[in-house]
Amino acid sequence: MQSKTPSIHLTFTHRGATHPLSLLPESTLAYLQERLEELTAVPQENQKLLYKGKKTLGPDATISDAGLKDGMKVQLIGPTAEELGGLKATESEHQRKERILRERAQRAPVKVRSTGPSSSTDSQYTFHRIEPLPHLPNPESARNLLTKLANDPAIRHVMRKHQFSVGVLTELAPHEQPHLLGLNVNAGQAIKLRLRTDRYDGFRLFTEVRRVLCHELTHNVWGDHDNNFKELNSTLNKEVAEFERAQAAGAHQLGGGGFGPPQSALEAEAQEYALGGSYTLGGPGASSPGDSPEERRRKVLEATMNRLRKEEEELEDRCGTAGHP
């Protein structure tokens, strides 16, 4: 009489929750992923397992081949389907990018929402948790700044429009990651922002941190700082400026304007600044007394585009998302 193969007892942890699981040694990794999705709601393609002696194998390999042994504790990392904005777990990367491109192509005017009861999209496309770092000074002030960012009307507008969902909005400690201004973990599982000054004697300007937030929100869609990323990031910044300009003017609709059809999203963003006449007297782009209005605007636009490019280069250099494991 053959003896029954003993089961392997494993303990999986995800977001502080513990999930015990018993499997046969010949169970496949694909079967394990199915069970983990049932337990945690983390889609299979977004699951990452961390344990000692891990071996990278295909889904048809057994859990024994993968180095999982009886009594092991395994950490599961990955966003849930809800945090991914309701995307179906079976949606392929190609389908996801095609959907994003279709949404971006829709440029119909958007009405500025009046204050009133929040809709279902407000609860879906939002920051689901706010978490300052409790071991840093003045955590309540950090919470207030994070809450202000999360509730900023322009940020809420772009999150609804582009269907962004973020699990946790939190902060980066300057002494732990002094070079970074922002980090997006697992395409929206968490966004971490540099809120404080190097000496912990205050907080960075709201507008500066919000610009970093727009940069990190772009990483919900694009991982690397390629042309796709740059286009969407410029679009988000333009939409934030456009939304605020419409609110300030009491307009009922958001739309284009200025110099006519823009050559690029970055140029369109620069036009938002140029129309407001934001340039430094005597600095690059400053006009001469004999310049025509068109020439003055051209110089302001050129100077503003150069400044925006430099700002984006600094943000890319101080962003920890691209290539982050």
From TrEMBL:
Annotated spans, Disordered: 103-124, 275-299
Pfam families xrefs: ubiquitin (PF00240), WLM (PF08325)
Any one GO MF annotation of this record: proteasome binding
Chain intervals with Polar residues compositional bias: 115-124
Protein name: WLM-domain-containing protein
Organism: Dichomitus squalens
Lineage: Eukaryota, Fungi, Dikarya, Basidiomycota, Agaricomycotina
